[in-house]
Amino acid sequence: MFGLMVRFTCKDEEAAAEFDELVAHTGEQIKAHEPGTLIYTVHRVEGRPLERIFYELYRDREAFDVHESQNHVREFLKARGKYLSSTEVDVLDFMSGKGVDA
């Protein structure tokens, strides 16, 4: 498995609302077209209304590469910058857990 945790910080509340709309649209496309994307979840951070955490889990690195090549993902990556003040990405090395069989 291959995973990421991404922390996005939006510029302001208006940008956060628009970013959330972009995320919702992209998420629907991911659900419909990416069988190798096992988990793609978006979270608000309690007490930090401008922050969003994405947790992404892919069947393998190849599935992640397929995800990154999708038009809806490329559109998201192109559009997101106007809403964000920062982005932090952690690549995760899966050790153990419960929830998704690869």
Automatic annotation (TrEMBL):
UniProt entry keywords in alphabetical sequence: Monooxygenase, Oxidoreductase
Domain named ABM: residues: 2-94
Any matching Pfam family: ABM
Keyword Oxidoreductase appears in the UniProt entry: yes
Oxidoreductase as UniProt keyword: yes
Domain of life of the native organism: Bacteria
A GO term, aspect molecular function: monooxygenase activity
Matches recorded under InterPro entries: ABM_dom (IPR007138), Dimeric_a/b-barrel (IPR011008)
Protein name, UniProt field: Antibiotic biosynthesis monooxygenase
